[in-house]
């Protein structure tokens, strides 16, 4: 890239970054709450000062040129540094925290806790982007993700947030009519609710180091786990769900865990993931600490239900500090009744 002239405004960098994230000038204008004309003028001014074309624009799409790709990385480093410098002059507890998670995790575990976070930090707002896809946090300028997928990007840091092992559950009405399975093989006689297209023909269960694969009959399901959740509540059959997804229903008696010694996958986690930065924004650090504290307390309060593996809870025990209201129990799952 050739030597550039002096930039007139840091806002030009912010506009360029917003255009790339939004994928179009019009969407960037909406995101920034400014006119399309202003966005276009800012981009043209930036390109003129740099002496290069940053974006290749056609009637249907917008893409980065080679120079634009190189400049984008340096632009974002500069914006991060400016943000960190601005926070030094204030408490840093203001601005927007952009979070991505699956719809289920956002609805069950994030949204119900936002009122407490916003009460603590009234100058911070939270924007949640729900997606089952693994979004590029750096490219999309997302502050953090809560995801189950393995970490494959070296630019990211991941911390375990909550165990993600699956449990089997059904409604009391379904079990009263169809009976309660006492052994994994009993599942062959039951209606099962499954995730996948085509639906799986077997479920694999673990008990410690022992595992068993059981043939099942899928009566309903799809590519969204919420279908199974709602189906189980509607007395349709047995679902395999993450414990964090159904813990409130089990506590309320709307769902009952069955085969409590058996788990649908072990050592699985929902992790809190964020870009590795020299200066992590304070608002992001505040939200990470808040969610970790909230999830630790939620695990402590649900330990008596036996929905989470003792080995997984033990791994989280060292993270409990004096700020916790009480220590996290590591009770094993209850014996089957």
Automatic annotation (TrEMBL):
PROSITE patterns: HTH_LYSR. The keyword Transcription applies. Keywords: DNA-binding, Transcription, Transcription regulation. Pfam families: HTH_1 (PF00126), LysR_substrate (PF03466). Residues 8-65 form the HTH lysR-type domain. One of its GO terms (molecular function) is DNA-binding transcription factor activity. Belongs to the LysR transcriptional regulatory family. PANTHER family: HTH-TYPE TRANSCRIPTIONAL ACTIVATOR TTDR-RELATED (PTHR30537:SF5), HTH-TYPE TRANSCRIPTIONAL REGULATOR (PTHR30537). This is Transcriptional regulator LysR family. It comes from Methylorubrum populi. The lineage of its organism: Bacteria, Pseudomonadati, Pseudomonadota, Alphaproteobacteria, Hyphomicrobiales.
